[in-house]
Amino acid sequence: MNNHDNHPILFCGAGPGDPELITVKGMKALGEADLVVYAGSLVPEAVLRWTSKEAKRVSSAGMNLDQIMAKLVKGYYNGLKVVRLHTGDPSLYGAIREQIEVLLENEIPYKVIPGVTSAFAAAASLGIEYTVPEVTQTLIFTRMAGRTPVPETENLKALASHGASLAIYLSMALIDEVSRILSETYGSDTACAIAYRVSHPEENIIRTTVRRLSEETKKAGIDRLAVILVGPALEPFSLSGNLRSKLYDKGFSHGYRTGK
After folding, report:
1. What separation in angstroms does the CA of 51 have from each of 32, 56, 86?
2. pTM, whole model, 2 decimals?
3. 3-class DSSP state for residue 103?
4. pLDDT tens digits, 109-161
C-alpha cells in the first residue's frame, strides 16, 4: 500500500476519567480506530467503551518508548487507523513530544485531538473560576521536581510568588514540601483543594487550607492521581468582594453592546 494513502496516527486526549468528558472528535476517533494504544496506568477502561468490538486495544502501561512506537509505526504501515490515547490533554505531561519526534524521523503523519485536563474537571466540580476579576488573570500548571527534574527558574516557590491560581500535578509524594512552600508564599490560611481521581466514580475533592493540606491528604490516604489547587479562586465568594467582569457590566460598551 502507498504510505500516502495511510491514515495519520492520532494522539487523543481521553479526558480526566469520565468517559463522557472525552471530546466528540475523540469519541469518533476511537469508534473508527483499528488499533488503540492507551496509557493503561491512567486511562480507565470505561473510556474504551467508545471503541468498536473489532478494534485491538493495547495498554502501554508496561511498555517503554521503543515498544510503544513499534506498535504505532507497525499499525501505520499496515494501513490501520491508529489512536494513541493519553489521559487528560496530551499536551500537558503527556510525553507526546518524544513520540512525535519518532514519527517525524520516519515521515509518518500525525494529528492531535485535545482533551479535558483534570484541573478543569476539578474546577467544574468545585464550581470555581480560576481567573478572578481584578485579583488574578493567570493560571499556572506546574509540578514538583522528582525523577523528572524541573528547571530552577520554574521551581514551585518562584511560581507561587506570583499569587496566581496554581494547579500542581504529579506531586503527591512530596506533599510535605509542597505544603511548606505554599505556606511561605500564599500563607498558611489560604484556601486550597486536593482533587483525587476527579470525574471518576471514586472522585474525592477535599477543600482545606494550606496549613492542613498535608494532614488532610495523608488522612484521606491520597498519595497519587491527584492535583493540588491553590490561589484566590479557592477562597469563598464572601471573601472575594463584589468582583465583576467588564464583559456583562451594563455600563461597559463593546462591539456587540452599548453601555448604559
Report:
1. 7, 9, 15
2. 0.89
3. helix
4. 999 999 999 999 999 999 999 999 888 999 999 999 888 889 999 999 999 99
